[in-house]
Design goal:
The chain is an alpha/beta fold and 288 residues long. It has ten helices and eleven strands. It has two domains: 86 residues, Leucine Dehydrogenase, chain A, domain 1 (Rossmann fold, 3-Layer(aba) Sandwich), CATH 3.40.50.10860; 123 residues, Rossmann fold. It has a six-stranded parallel sheet with strand order 1-11-8-7-5-6. Bound molecules: 5,10-Methenyltetrahydrofolate and magnesium ion (MG). Pathway: One-carbon metabolism; tetrahydrofolate interconversion.
């Protein structure tokens, strides 16, 4: 069996055009465009690339994009002051502070300082708690994008066995919550998990978010399973995921490529969340 390739670029393009339509409606209703502020601390080259593509996609969707750059040696207090100013800025609906932050900064304190209603990354503890308890929440963009890709293959996920590999607050934990919300039976595996291959061989759905290039082997995949690869690893061989794609594509039923899978969905979901935050702030219906 050869897997079908899940075209994240195409799904993301459809979502971006739906967001653009929603932005036009929002503008007609409120007389303003949603605004997204992205904060970058330091000059990490890869981060600069993401920030640029986010800014381009934001403007293409009809939203206002604002970028703030602080030097790598900026004081935590300067970043906190910037976050406070963005919280208070009526033109700003979404705030994204690019992670990771330099090691002298307390990322958790910064995340907790963002107004939860503007937390388009969904990383604030209030949003994590709302997601976990089934309340309306801003949901982290990467897991939300993964769920949309899964739904494009499985109209219903109910009763499927899902294994999420990775337990980060950014991907693994919220991904598990979303899958639980879809009535999957969810396992969160991580670096201490015993016999990961055996657990994966029982999984209908695998979400790989470990950050280890090509760690998950093709013969760990159950024939016909759906594999979502969150990994973005820059290696000598180029950009690769956390899954050995060449091996897994021979066994899986459907699989996301890297690049062109989850990454484009993350950006499209960021725009979606910004529109959602703007609609909620202005009390108009969110059309998506
Ligand atoms: N607060 C915060 N929120 C984030 O969402 C966040 C962050 N910090 N820090 C960095 C990571 C990384 N990230 C990516 C988004 C899109 C692609 C993406 O679109 N990748 C393309 C192209 C990759 C390439 O060619 O470089 C693809 O996979 O096809 C990748 C990576 C968001 N992040
Ligand atoms: Mg881990």
């Amino acid at each position: 069996m050869t897997a079908s390739i899940i075209d994240g670029k195409a799904v993301a393009a459809t979502l971006r055009s739906q967001v653009a339509e929603g932005v036009a409606t929002f503008q007609a209703q409120t007389g303003r465009a949603p605004g997204l502020a992205v904060v970058l601390v330091g000059e990490d080259a890869a981060s600069s690339v993401y920030v640029r593509s986010k800014g381009k996609a934001t403007v293409a969707a009809g939203m206002i994009s604002v970028e703030h750059r602080l030097p790598a040696d900026a004081e935590q207090a300067a970043l906190m002051a910037l976050v406070a100013a963005l919280n208070a800025d009526p033109a700003i609906d979404g705030i994204l502070v690019q992670l990771p932050l330099p090691s002298h900064m307390d990322a958790q304190a910064v995340i907790s300082a963002i107004d939860p209603n503007k937390d388009v990354d969904g990383f604030h503890p209030a949003n994590a708690g709302r997601l976990a308890t089934g309340l309306p929440a801003l949901v982290p963009c990467t897991p939300l994008g993964c769920l949309m890709l899964l739904r494009s293959v499985h109209p219903s996920l109910s009763g499927l066995d899902a294994v999420v590999v990775g337990r980060s607050n950014i991907v693994g934990k919220p991904m598990a919550q979303l899958l639980l919300g879809e009535s999957c039976t969810v396992t969160i595996a991580h670096s201490r998990t015993r016999d990961l291959p055996a657990r994966l061989r029982a999984a209908d759905i695998v979400v790989a978010a470990v950050g280890i290039p090509q760690m998950i082997q093709g013969d760990w995949i159950k024939p016909g399973a759906t594999v979502i690869d969150v990994g973005i690893n820059r290696t000598a061989a180029g950009l690769v995921g956390d899954v050995d794609f060449a091996g897994a594509v021979e066994v899986a039923g459907a699989i996301t490529p890297v690049p062109g899978g989850v990454g484009p969905m993350t950006i499209a979901c960021l725009l979606r969340n910004t529109l959602e935050a703007a609609c909620r702030r202005d009390g108009v219906a969110f059309p998506l």
